[in-house]
Design brief:
Elements (H helix, E strand, L loop, with lengths): L2 H10 L13 E4 L7 E6 L5 E7 L13 E7 L5 E7 L5 H15 L5 H19 L9 H20 L5 H5 L10 E2 L4 E7 L5 E4 L11 E11 L9 H12 L5 H11 L12 E12 L20 E4 L16
Parallel strand pairs: 7-9
Antiparallel strand pairs: 1-2, 2-3, 3-5, 4-5, 6-7, 8-11, 9-10
Helix pairs in contact: 2-3, 4-6
Amino acid sequence: MTRIEELWESLRSGVKGSPGDAGGWQLVRIDLEHPFDIYAGVDGGGAALFAISVGVRPPAIDADTQALTYFTMPRAGGRTLLGLRLTATALESVFGRLCQDLTDAAADVAGEAALVSLFRARLQLWKRLFRDGGLGLLKKQKIRELVAELLALGEFIRVGREDPLQPVTCWKNPGAAQDFVFPDRAVEVTSVPPGAGTVGIASTLQLDAAVPLTLRLCVLRESAPSDPGALTLPLLVARTAEMLADVPGAMAALHDRLLAAGYVEHEHYQTIAFVPLETRHYAVGDSFPRLVPATLPAGIPDVTYTILLASIGAFQIPEHSNAA
């Protein structure tokens, strides 16, 4: 349990009033040594609150979701409380970790303007995480994809020992055309279960790059966490962090990328595991079967499609090649 979760539990014993009654709220600073005023709290109905107190003008933030309500409240001395109220109690464990992470990250920002920018950026990320009534946890297919990307990241770090930070900074956020974009090459990472005959391509940009492009396909078998060779997200994150422990700036970059991917430390991820069976690399060029923006008919901005794996065998890079 994080520090903020402990404070929520402690404060609930003293709350009285209705959920909307500010007089029934209880707020307490999370860390008296922290450079900023950051609070844990509960409302009159016991719902978890998280807030920061700032003297700068609060921005307009569209952060309300089915799970969170954003509010501002004037305070003495011209200060303003920027807060979040958790309306979905089932999310409290994930919300607690996110709030604690923001509190920790805030210790390294310079000034209240930067603090508000961090708060706003994280709210947008949390909004995506909690959208569609989700529990703030990745679904199994997303977990599989992130396992494949972390396996690729680990290989790139091992191969690029002269600059182990580069693979982390070249690991792109969701929505980018490719997963890894290096100065001289790009790598798109995907995964399939054993026996798959096709691989899904989510966008026409996915296999379209201005630099040489490799499609890295990882065959992952779902397994029990106790199976030999089984990998979970927490295990892979820990292994990657160990590889980067002595690299300045690498841990922060890794953490930011994992957050952008929607990964929050949670015991749920200990229960879902995969065993990597095989990794294949394919050189993607002009003759590779793919759809790119330039080939789409007018009026069709994008498509998703599948590729028969049997049709790309000729493009496979031999195992002894330097796939990284």
